[in-house]
Amino acid sequence: MQVVLNSGDTVKLTKEDVLVERKGRDDFALLEGSHFLTLLDTNVTRELKEEGLVREIIRAVQTYRKELNLPVDLRVDLFIQAHTWLQNVLVEHDELMQRNLILNNVHFEGKPDMRSFHVEGNEIKMFIKS
Question: What is the pTM for the complete model shown?
Answer without folding.
Answer: 0.72
